[in-house]
Structure prediction request, 791 residues.
Amino acid sequence: MATLVLGGVGALVGSAFGGPAGARWGWAIGTTIGSWLDAPDAPDSEYGKLSDLRYSGSQYGVGYPVVWGRGRVGGQVVWVKEVDGNHLVEHKRSQGGGGGGSGGGGGSVTTYWYSATFAVAVCTGTLHMPNGDLVHLAPELKRVWADDVLVYDSAAPSNIVTPVWHDGSESQAPDSTIVSAMGLGSSATPAFRGTAYMVLTDMSLEEFGNRIPNFSVEVETAAVDYGKVFSDLARMVGILPSELDVTAATSEVKGVVKQGRAAPQDLATSLLTAGALEAVEVDGVIRLVPLGGSPVLTVSSDHVGASLEGSSIEAVERRRAMETELPGRIDVRYFDVDSDAQQNVQTEVRQTADVANSRTIDLPMAMTGDEARAIAARELDRLWTETESLTLHLLPRYLPLAPADVVLVPTDTGAVRTRVTTGRLMPFGPIVLELVPDGASVTVQDPPGAGGGGGGAVYEVVPTTFVVWSGRELLDGHQYSPGFYVAATGEAGWSGCSVWYSLDGGTTYTQGPTITGRSAFGVTETALSDSGAVAGEFDLVNDVEVDLTTSKGSLASVSQAQVDAGENIAVIGDEIVGVATAGLDASYEYTLSDLKRGLRGTPMAGHSIGELFVAATTDLGRVQVGEDYVGETVYVKCLSAYQTLADVTAKPVVIAPRTPSTGEALAAAAVWPTFLAALVSLASGSSAVGSWTPIDLSSDVPDGARFAILQVTLVLAGSHPPSGAKIELRASSGAVEHTALMVWAGDTDDTGSTVQALAALDPARSLEYRVTGDYIDDWSISLLGYYAGLP
Prediction:
């Protein structure tokens, strides 16, 4: 009604200003406004409402980390407030639904959001030693991230959340919020003694998908040195304070984190590596000795070569390790104090060695990039310095020497600085010492961390260009685990790269394979057609153009026989092909033809311009992951020499399901038969059929079926002498040896028998049968079902 009324009013007003034309414009404007008012009311809408308000994210049996100094660790939700059987508290806000008179339109929009009150365990607050001692670490809360969003910083004037912190003493009282919510009184409410935890009250979950987010928490204890951390680790495995001497290990540690169930001895080994320390046992006491100390004595040349009377030994025995066994690169993985304690990597390379032979040192410690780089440089130099080892036979006066002592040993070329590694006293004989060269300068390294400041040498970094993909495996051996491939290259001076991948969204990275040669990869410039193509055969009609400018790779032509032998294989999109002819059109641009299509069962259709092309050479990296990561996104980085994780942008790859091996596929097919709803009669008779007779099953079993499940009946006539009657079947190709499905083996009184058996099918889903023997009264062959399989 408002449409007509306002249309008329609009026409009158319009005609007053512009005659007939104005009337038409007035009518149009009036009817438009009227249609808005006449429109039916919009329905009310609701968004974000949850049906399940309970939390179920806690894990049983997860150990809490231990932090010395400063460290960033994950949090574990240990308690959630429950209200009316629910953990999440529902809130809502409404918008719209306003007036405007009759038929005001605009339904209301209600948005739901949720909050929760909960406790998050962070780390161990008090260490319980086996001898009963308690060591309160008293960690302080510094920063809190929720799903990588910084929600609390103790140094900030205001924060998104304000946690209540408990530092994990053995005397801490229960949190007042938990006491009130549980209603059990202080004595019956858990206080989580010994565990440092925080309580967040009424935290809004709207910005976190209306769920309790994952927490990452940075804490800090009082300042510690290497000796303090080593002592605590040793005491955790039962070594008494009286059995330790750590007074020489006074260098400060920025932060050390022992993850929940990590072995203390493993962390102690990392600690010694980072601190350039050796742990030696002297007179029943474990002593920490810094490397690079001053010599304790000089061995007299007159005392070298001591032996039992009548024996002959060399004064100094030398042995040298094979240089091919030594690493050409050391990667140190650590937590960077300048990058919010995120994991990072520093690398040191020995240019004259094989950089493909690398070692990774995992340090669950907080440090700067320069410090980590110095550790990598020191360890690489130490390993190469200690290539040669010495054996000395000395007089008993040298008995006080202990492992880690530095001594000067006389040689033909002058005194050599060495370090004792082991020593033993021969029965009624000399002391035998094993030593390695010890360079004092080795322990003092000052290279700048990649991306860091400071002076020192300038290192040329040649970044890596790389691609990652997951799909059909290139080799049979890759089918037993899902995973992904990496192709990589670089500009002039590129010496290879190490592959690093993250299974937790980029928080931590694991080192994978090393790629030392340049991969050839690029994109397609035309779409490869499947017209007339046959899987497993050479396609002499279709070709494809590829551009390898990205990798500056090269391709070569080979014979079809070489392709059949597995050479010149490539990946084009989702298809694996063999390339016989690679014609160079221009710089790094090729036309590929004579392609062996659809290798390894890959699809030939659906190609487009811009698809990934990779030559499947040995210069590829393959990383295997667990079955649980199929469908998940893995982040990949390729680090050149002198690069860190922070220097490289990660590339995501979604893990494809692995392809079952031929044996697995056949086994799976054999386990899961398909039975028809009713028997299908295939052939029958009352006498022998001596020649092979075909049976066409293409209308009864699907394409790809490998075996037919048959019911075979053979009936002999009345009383008869022993008979050689039998029914045989075979695949109709004739090349497959036939299988006797039924051979009469009964006595003269038997009248018939029915059995079930399998018969192999050829690719056309057909088979052949014949019936031989005497005294046959009746026989039949019927189809029960089939087993699927690989074509």
Summary: The longest strand covers residues 108-124.
